[in-house]
Structures are given as structure tokens and as C-alpha cells.
Amino acid sequence: MSKVKVAILGSGNIGTDLMIKLSRSQILELTAVIGIDPQSDGLRRARELGYAGVDTGIDGFLADPELEADIVFDATSAKAHLYNAKVLKEAGIKVIDMTPAAVGPYVCAAVNIDEHLEKDNINLITCGGQATIPMVHAVNRVSPVEYAEIVATISSKSAGPGTRANIDEFTETTSRAIEVVGGAKKGKAIIILNPAEPPIIMRDTVYTLVEEGTMDEEGIRKSIADMTEVVQSYVPGYQLRTEPIFDGNKITIFIQVEGAGDYLPKYSGNLDIMTAAGVKVAEEFAKNLLKTEAV
Amino acid sequence: MTNERDILITEVALRDGSHAVSHQYTVDQVLKVTKALNDANVPYIEVSHGDGLAGSSLQYGLSRTNEMELIEAAVSVADKSKIAVLLLPGIGTLHELKEAANLGAKMARIATHVTEADVAPQHIAYAKELGMETVGFLMMNHMAPVDKLVEQAKLMESYGADTVYVVDSAGYLLPGQVRERIRALKQSVGVNIGFHGHNNLSLAMANTLVAIEEGATRIDGSVRCLGAGAGNTQTEVLVAVCERMGIKTGVDLYKMMDLAEDIIAPLLPVPQEITKDSLTLGYAGVYSSFALHSKRAAEKFGVDSRDILIELGKRKVVGGQEDMIVEVAAEIAKSKIANL
């Protein structure tokens, strides 16, 4: 089967973890890792593994006729993404935006990728969004969700300087996506950093209130179990910590996300679920591209 | 009188005290309490959900009244006192901060876990931009060694905090530990130093006096002790003690006593005491607002709430992790059945 070419923009932790995940893909072929620091450990690693390590940024990549990609992962920053999005669109390359910039529509890998296969730029929301929105959706597809609230607790070590300096972006973006993608009428998100050593594994709690008189406990239990399997297909460390709790019209769901430990440590499930979702979305894009070519 | 104060008291009954009434304050209650505090010449009055702006949630408890209405009401009757708000980054955002400032809040207290000050720069800078006085509020202070506290306090100072607080959220610190902490900060930061105590080990007053002795000039008190766990340093008692020690608070003792007795006491569903649960908080080093949630979970799962709190302490749970309570309660219940 022919493969679709992809490149990674950003040679930090996320970019490097993506690189390792992409090396396993049956359908995606990584061509280049693009950074701006010639001394970067990520670029050195990329070259060691036989990929092009571009240290002249997105412009350098686009200017090199020998390098190509149909899809680019942008793992830089919200600010850098605004420029990257523009030049990649001009170059006709699809972009998976892993920054909080949200130029394109929000996509949760387990929920709404099918609606956005033709888009040239999609945004992966936040780690908390990727972990919890599947559950909001799982409840909402059975009983309409009036209100959904999520609490993401991550280890301090897995929260980088970008997340810390812009912590409001997490709460605001996640809240909106709980509504837009998850289907809740109203969404709210809370994030907590826990400095315990050894670092704690990412945990998320999802509270949903369903419309009065619509509670279908059996249906919701099954929907949650089905959705858990869907997410596990691309994030093996995703699991329910305990059975969902039903109380009146409230359902509480407890999730744990352990990372695959590819490049990032296992406790940082919050980062792993982003890179895993990125690869999942890229694979769906690729299948669609190959199908279109075949026709 | 206002110009002659050795310490500046922030009254927290309408914020931390919100836990004691399960976030059920009404506009009318806030008007009455604020008016009395203003008359008593209390310099700062904090009004917010117990977990800070935007804290109204299933995780922490829903507010009966939108906190912005409560802030607006407080501002309307405080012509001398300044209204303060609390904000925990990760829960509240710049959006709520702006709304509160527009309603007339004059001081923003930005609260982080003692080791996580670097989630606060955005909020402190924005509060400054809005013309507010700023406080870096380092919670669960006992969970970090003194040198780490100093490092984090310096960060708060570098972001523009006018004051840095040692916040004993679990009511766990002993007087000697408070002394060591305030002394270290006094030697290393240039801004005001504050102390916020909880009375879980009946040490809130002793700790506060030690803090003042070491140079803390911003002190939190709560009238009739109204606060999470066993509550905070009791404001009217603090005023009386300070008066006897020759420390000027500028606050009218009789008026505070009247407020405590005539307005606050009737509001309380149960008197604020050191119950076995709040004592366990202080003993195990657990965030004070966990007390009520643990009590409810203990009843629901038929386990001892003290076991839940002790286990939470062992797991080094931090402020805001109320969702751990139900989970731990369920686990204890399960292991009890397994052991039968």
C-alpha cells in the first residue's frame, strides 16, 4: 500500500514523540522533522533515524524541492502557527494544529474527524479535551447533556512552560470544545497541577448532567464502554479508573491516561494522548487522500 | 485611625467562609455582612466562591448566587473597605478577573499550589493592568520545604505581586514552622508578607501571632471563624488580642463582636468547631475544603471520613482535587467488603 508523506514542525518533546509514533504507522511516511535550532536534540535524533532534519524552519522546508509532505503536524506554538498555517495553506499542505491557535475547527479524534476530512487545517483542542470529550459525547449520544464539567489533573512535570504561561487557554478552549464537539449545552473545564513524586498519571473526571427525564443508565453504560474501546484503539493506556457513578441526572466518569512511553515518560498521558490523537487524525486524512486518488 | 495600622486585615468570611455555608450566600447576607465590616473599619473584604472566581462547579459545589452579583453588592456598601477577589489559575480566568474589576474589586489574590507559582504571571500582570493591588497566595504551604517556598515567593514578586502570602490551607503548620517560613521570606523578598491560617489544630491564632512577630503585615481573619475545615483565624478575637499586645489593626472590636454574634452566628447551619474531620485535616495535611465533601462521601459509601482524609494525605493530593474523595471512598468501601 502506498503511504502518505508527512512532516513534523517543531523538534521539541511533542515533535520527537510524534516521530517515534509515526515510525510505526502503516500508512504514513515521515519525511522530515523541521526545527529552528541546529543544536536541537530532536533534529539530531531525526537524522539518526534517517529522516531529514531541517533547521531552517518552515520556510527552509518549503524552499527545498527535495522535501515533500501532504500533511504537516504543527507542534510549535500558537503564535508561530498563525504564520505556519498561512504558508502551508498556500503550499496546499494539510495541517494538524497541535497548538492552542485553533485556526481550523476543533477535532477530537474519537468523535468528529469524519466531518472534517476535507479541511486543510484542523485543531486538536487540548489534552484534557482529547481525554474527556469522547465521554461527553458518549453520554450525549444517548441522553442529551445539559451541562458537562471536566477536571484534568496532570503531574507538574508534564506541564511545560507554554501551558503554564497560558493556562487560561486550556480552560477556555476545553470548555468551548466540550460544547462544540462533545455536544453539551454548557461546558466547563478545570485543570490542576499536582507536583507529587513520583509523578502522577494523568487523571480526568467528567461530570455530566443530562436533561430531566432522559436518563438511560443502561444505554449510557454501554455507550461509555464502547467509546472507551474506540479511544483505546489509538491510546492503549486510556482506561476508566472505576465504574461510572449514576446519581439522579448526574453521571460521573473517572478516567486515567497512561502514556505509551515512546519518548515522553509514561505518566505524561496528557502529552501522549495529543500525539496519539495527531497520528490517528493524520491516518484518517491519509486514508481519505488515498481513496480520493484511487477514484 | 485608618492611617495607623501595624497590620492590615483581610476578612475572608465571604470567600473562605463560603465553604462553611456550602456556597449558599445571598445578596442580602453579603450586603449585611459587608456593611458591618465596613463600619468596623476592616481594610479588605474578600468576596468570591470558596474556590475563587468561577469556582461554582459540580467539583466544588455550585453557588446559590452568581458571585459577580455578590461582589457588586459588597462594593455598593463598602465606602471605606476595599473588596478583594481570589482567583486560582486553572479554575478562574482573566475573563472573570476583568468582570470583578469592572464591578469595583480593588485587590486580586492569585492563588497557586506552593510549588506552582509560574501559572500566575498572566493573572498578576493583568490585575495590575486593571489597576488592582495584587497578592501571590501560596497555598498548601506545608507541602514544600522552606527553600522551595522562598524560590516560589521570589517568582511571585518578580511577576509583580505586591504581597506574598504563606497560606496554611490544611491548617497543618506548627508555630515553629510558621516562624521559619515568615522569617525566610522576610530575608529574601522585598514585598509585603502575609499569613492565612486554618484552625484545624487550634493553632490559627498562635500561628498568626508568630507570623506578625516575624514581620508579616497582611493577615487573614474570618469573623466567627467562618471558613473551610475548622475555619480561619477568628477576626474579632485577633483584633482583641492585637489590641492587648499594642498591635494596631484599626478595626473596631465591639462592632466586630456584634457582627459575629448578631449577623454571622444565625447564618451558620452548625457552629464552626474543630470536629473530628477538621482535626484530621490538620493532622494529615489535607486541603481544608475537603472536609464537607469527605463527610458526604463517607455517608454515601458507609466508611469513616477520617480514613478517607488520611488516605488523601498519603497520596499527596493538592487543593482542588475534590474528585479524588469519592474515588478513595469507593476504594475503601470495596476493600472493606473484600476483607470481610
Automatic annotation (TrEMBL), chain A:
Domain named Semialdehyde dehydrogenase NAD-binding: residues: 5-119
Keywords: Aromatic hydrocarbons catabolism, NAD, Oxidoreductase
Reactions that this protein is recorded to catalyse: acetaldehyde + NAD(+) + CoA = acetyl-CoA + NADH + H(+)
Broad class of enzyme this protein falls into: oxidoreductase
Top-level taxon in the UniProt lineage: Bacteria
EC number: 1.2.1.10
Pfam family, one: Semialdhyde_dh
Signal peptide limits: none
UniProt keyword S-adenosyl-L-methionine present: no
CDD domains: ALDH_C
GO molecular function: acetaldehyde dehydrogenase (acetylating) activity; NAD binding
Recorded family membership: Belongs to the acetaldehyde dehydrogenase family.
HAMAP family membership: Ac_ald_DH_ac (MF_01657)
Name listed for the protein in its UniProt record: Acetaldehyde dehydrogenase
TrEMBL record, chain B:
One annotated GO biological process: L-leucine biosynthetic process
Gene3D superfamilies to which the protein is assigned, alphabetical: 1.10.8.60, Aldolase class I
Matches recorded under CDD domains: DRE_TIM_HOA (cd07943)
Ranges annotated as spanning the membrane: none
EC numbers, comma separated: 4.1.3.39
Residues forming the catalytic site: H19
PROSITE patterns in the record: PYR_CT
Stored InterPro entries: 2-IPM_HCS-like (IPR050073), 4OH_2_O-val_aldolase (IPR017629), Aldolase_TIM (IPR013785), DmpG_comm (IPR012425), DRE_TIM_HOA (IPR035685), PYR_CT (IPR000891)
Site annotation Transition state stabilizer: residues: R15
Amino acids binding substrate: R15, D16, S169, H196, Y287
Domain of life: Bacteria
Keyword Metal-binding annotated: yes
Family: Belongs to the 4-hydroxy-2-oxovalerate aldolase family.
Name assigned to this protein: 4-hydroxy-2-oxovalerate aldolase
Protein's organism: Neobacillus niacini
